[in-house]
Specification:
The chain folds into three domains: 54 residues, no CATH class; 64 residues, no CATH class; 62 residues, no CATH class. It is 13% helix and 40% strand. Strands 5-4-6-7 form a four-stranded antiparallel beta sheet, with helices on one face. It has a four-stranded antiparallel beta sheet with strand order 8-9-10-11, with no helix packed on it. It binds zinc ion (ZN). Zinc ion binds next to loops.
Length: 193
C-alpha cells in the first residue's frame, strides 16, 4: 500500500523529487513508478541510473478495539500496522479482564480499513505465596510438570504447576468475548481450597 515517487540526482549529486520533474507524481505500485522512470529517462537528458524510485510516507489512521485514536505518517499500511501493534499496552486494560485479544487496524485517509491484526495480552503472573526465601525477596513460582492437553477449538493447552503453591499456568485457548473465537494466551488458575 505504499506510494512511490521518482527522484533524480540534482546538479550537486543529491537525490531530489524536484529534479525529476515539476510535479511530484505518486504511483500506486513500484513497477508503475519503475516504468514511468524508464520513460522519464528517455525524455530527460539523463540515464535511468540517475533516477530512482522511492516509497513515500502517507498518513494513516490507527485503530485499536474499533476506535480511531491517532494519525501518523508511514511508508506503508504494514508499517503503520506494526506501530498500531506496538502501541497496544496492557496498562490500558484492567488486569482482571486479561487475557484479551485486541483488534488493531489501519485505515487510509478515506477511512477504508487496509490492514488489520490481533495482539494478545496475557494475564499478569500473580506472586507466589508459597515461596519464602531467607532473603524474602524472591516470589517467583517454580514451574514444573508441564503437560499438554487437547482443549477447546481443537487447540492444545500447555499446563504447568508451581511446585510451591500449586498455581497452574495455562498457555491455551481463551474465548474472545466479542467474536467467540478462540485464541491462545497465558493465564493462571488456582484450585478452590
Ligand atoms: Zn507458586
Amino acid at each position: 500500500m505504499s506510494r512511490y515517487i521518482i527522484e533524480a540526482r540534482d546538479r550537486f549529486g543529491a537525490w531530489s523529487a524536484e529534479a525529476a520533474g515539476s510535479a511530484v507524481v505518486r504511483f500506486a505500485t513500484e513497477s508503475e513508478a519503475d516504468a514511468a522512470a524508464g520513460e522519464l529517462a528517455r525524455d530527460l537528458p539523463c540515464d535511468r541510473a540517475d533516477l530512482r524510485v522511492v516509497p513515500v510516507a502517507e498518513r494513516w489512521q490507527l485503530v485499536e478495539g474499533g476506535e480511531h485514536y491517532d494519525d501518523l505518517e508511514a511508508e506503508s499500511a504494514d508499517q503503520a500496522l506494526e506501530i498500531a501493534r506496538d502501541n497496544v499496552d496492557a496498562a490500558h486494560y484492567a488486569a482482571e479482564h486479561l487475557p484479551l485479544r485486541i483488534a488493531v487496524a489501519v485505515r487510509d485517509q478515506d477511512g477504508q480499513e487496509v490492514a488489520s491484526d490481533y495482539v494478545v495480552l496475557d494475564a499478569p503472573e500473580p506472586p507466589c505465596p508459597g515461596r519464602h526465601d531467607d532473603d524474602g525477596a524472591d516470589d517467583w513460582h517454580d514451574w514444573t510438570d508441564e503437560r499438554a492437553y487437547g482443549a477447546e477449538g481443537g487447540m492444545v493447552a500447555h499446563v504447568s504447576t508451581c511446585a510451591r503453591c500449586g498455581l497452574r499456568r495455562i498457555y491455551g485457548p481463551v474465548s474472545d468475548r466479542s467474536t467467540g473465537e478462540y485464541f491462545r494466551a497465558t493465564h493462571y488458575h488456582r484450585d478452590e481450597q
